[in-house]
Amino acid sequence: MEQNPNEQLAHALPPLLMGVGGIEAKPSTEVLVIVADKQQVPVMVAHRAGRGRVVVSTADLGGSALTSLAENWGPQPERAASKLWRNMVYWVTEGSSVGRRRLIANSDKRFYRLGDKLSIQALAYDESARRSEKYQIWAMLEPMSLDDSSLYSPVLWPENVVRASGEVGPRVAWGEEIPLTLDQPASIFSWN
């Protein structure tokens, strides 16, 4: 019977040191890894804590063991080890946007006054959590309330950005897409 890729990687796992005694899993705990012997001792367990999960392991997964995983685990050891840790973070953070963040956007400050320049910078990451320039990123301004009946925001369209929306006024329309370009460290807007 042919093994799936996860089973193949599990069998190719280099030897790891395990803590003495193992873990006693509570009924509400999910057992993730067991030692494949007669006693079926849990080696890694997870338990819900608030909005996330806590993982506890008696296996040595740091230091020289981490180096061994990255150098000796399966046909592509570095890829297998990085995928293990990435998936572990995704699993522990579950539905959290922090665990699977693919876009990070920042402004130069939190509060602005009339006449201040607004600077927005965004970084995109691929599915391997590596910084990527393969994506196009746009900023969009929205009113704080749906009761706002104005068509335009108080922000002036940046002089250095081509306007593809067809708008001709000096202000950014609510919901109008503003491209963030790769060749500039940030897109600069005027806040009026």
What this model shows, in words?
The protein is an alpha+beta fold and 192 residues long. The chain has two domains: 89 residues, no CATH class; 89 residues, no CATH class. The strands form three sheets. Strands 4, 5, 6, 8, 9 and 11 form a six-stranded antiparallel beta sheet that branches.
Specify the helix fraction band.
10-25%
Roughly how many Å apart are the termini? 69 Å
By oligomeric state, this entry counts as single chain
Task: Report the portion of residues in β strands.
Answer: 25-35%
Q: Could you say how many structural domains there are in total?
A: 2
Low-confidence stretches: 185-192
Number of helices: 3
* Mean residue pLDDT: 77
**Rg on CA atoms, Å:** 25 Å
What is the number of E strands?
11
SS-based class:
alpha+beta
The succession of helices and strands, N to C, reads: HEEEHHEEEEEEEE
Shape: elongated
The major sheet is characterized as:
6 strands, antiparallel
Set out the fold topology.
Elements: H1 5-12, E1 30-34, E2 42-49, E3 52-57, H2 63-72, H3 77-93, E4 103-107, E5 117-125, E6 131-132, E7 137-140, E8 152-156, E9 171-173, E10 177-180, E11 187-191
Antiparallel strand pairs: 1-2, 2-3, 4-5, 5-6, 5-11, 7-10, 8-9, 8-11
Entry summary:
With 192 residues, the protein is of the alpha+beta class. It folds into two domains: 5-93, no CATH class; 103-191, no CATH class. The protein contains three helices and eleven strands.
Task: Using brief descriptors, characterize the structure shown.
single chain, 192 residues, alpha+beta, three-stranded antiparallel beta sheet, 11 strands, 29% strand, disordered C terminus
